[in-house]
Every structure is written in structure tokens, then in C-alpha cells.
Amino acid sequence: MAIHYPNGRKFVPDTNDKPVARGNSQSNRGMSLENELNLANQYYLNRGIANIHKKPTPIQIVNVDYPKRAAAKITEAYFRQASTTDYNGIYQGHYIDFDAKETTSLTSFPLSNVHEHQVTHLRDIVNQGGWAFFIIRFSKLSETYVIKASLLIAYWDQQATHRKSIPYVDIATNGQLIEQNIMPTLPYLKAVDRLMLANH
């Protein structure tokens, strides 16, 4: 199926969203970051800890094939608008908004994985007093970190004259490692607590 952005450019899926084999956990082998976050969010919702959801992406269907009466197939569609971030919700009385990305790099997180409208959105959330952050998985290291949006924004703002990535060492130093668990497998809100509450 062909999907296009609002400007008409064809959508190409992000290869970083493919399932990644996790070396340190047999139970999580092959589970993508998105799947782990969705399972964690369901766990938090079921226990009244937080109400966080993946944002739906509005799509306009253009062409549909009907090879059989009960087997409609969408052959062309367009994103109605550019997406902002992947997740938002309420946690401990705070509005939270974040995105999650994976990288195969061992040394840095490339800013090419982020779009300008996402940075603008995160900046707005920070300015309104919300908790805005980014979850970054270094798939080859089997490490997942939470960083404040402000760290991402700082690197984004200086990339025209400086580096176009966030060094791993800065993410590990300024962010919080999400420790793997059994239920949920990725208890990211514990890392968010350590990160966001440190300055409150």
C-alpha cells in the first residue's frame, strides 16, 4: 500500500522500527521498542498508575481495491498531517509527551532520526510545563535510556554549526537507563521518575 505525507512525498517506513534481537533477555528477543512500550502502557493503565497511549496517525484513504466483497484492500493513502510524537498521557498529575527511537550506532544517536516538527512540538510541551522526553534504544548495546527533551533540543539547535548527533556518553550521563524487568519488561516510568523528579 502506498502512503504519502501531506506534501505528497511517499512514506518510507523507518528501518529503526524493525524488531531487534535483545542479547541480554531471552523473553524479549525480537520484541521491538514500540511493542515493549505498548505493553508497559497497558500494564500502567490496568493498575491505575498512568494513562498513556500511542497517538493514532490520521490517514486519508484515496484508493481501495475490492477483489472480493469481504476483502477490501487499501492501495493508496495519505497522512492528513505531520505527526508530532508517538506517545502522550497523564502520569502523577503531569501531562507527559514523548517519542521513542532505536539506533544501531554504538557511539551516538543521529539527529536525522528526528523531524523538526517533533522538536517544535516537544519545545512547546516544555514551555507549557509538561514533561517532555525522548526514549532512545541502542539496540547493539541492549540499552534503553530516557533523556529530557531539553537535551535533544539543545543538540538540535546547534547542529548547523556543530555535530549532527547526540554522543552516547552524553545520553548515558544526562539520561536514565531503563532497567529491564519481567512485568512490564520495560518499566520506563521508573526512569522517568528519576529523570524528571530530580529537579523538582
Task: Give a nutshell description of this structure.
The chain is of the alpha+beta class and 200 residues long. Helices cover 26% and strands 30% of the residues.
Proportion of helical residues: 25-40%
The fraction of residues assigned to DSSP E strands is 25-35%
**What is the N-to-C succession of helices and strands?**
EHEEEEEEHEEHEHEH
Strand order of the largest sheet: 2-5-6-8-9-11
* Global outline: globular
The number of helical runs is: 5
The biggest sheet amounts to: 6 strands, mixed
Low-confidence stretches: 15-30
* Average pLDDT: 82
Q: What would your notes on this structure say?
A:
There is one protein chain. With 200 residues, this protein is of the alpha+beta class. The chain contains five helices and eleven strands. It has helices spanning 33-46, 116-127, 149-157, 168-174, 188-196; strands spanning 2-4, 50-54, 59-65, 73-79, 87-91, 94-103, 108-110, 131-138, 143-148, 165-167, 176-177. The chain has a six-stranded mixed sheet, with helices on both faces. Strands 1-4-3 form a three-stranded mixed sheet, with no helix packed on it. It has a two-stranded antiparallel ribbon with strand order 7-10. Helix 2 (116-127) packs across helix 3.
Write the layout of secondary structure elements.
Elements: E1 2-4, H1 33-46, E2 50-54, E3 59-65, E4 73-79, E5 87-91, E6 94-103, E7 108-110, H2 116-127, E8 131-138, E9 143-148, H3 149-157, E10 165-167, H4 168-174, E11 176-177, H5 188-196
Parallel strand pairs: 1-4, 6-8
Antiparallel strand pairs: 2-5, 3-4, 5-6, 7-10, 8-9, 9-11
Helix pairs in contact: 2-3
